[in-house]
Amino acid sequence: MTAKDCGHHHDHRKTLYRNICAALIALVLLVLFTILLIFLILRPTKPKFILIDATVYAFKVSAPNFLSTTLQVTLSSRNPNDHVGIFYDRVDVYATYRGQQITLPTMLPPTYQGHKDVDVWSPFVYGNEVPVAPYVAAALGEDQVTGRVLVNVKVDGRVRWKVGTWVSGRYHLNVNCPAYIVFGGNRVNSGGGIAVESGVKFQLVQSCHVDV
Question: Does the pTM of the predicted model rise above 0.90?
Answer without folding.
Answer: no
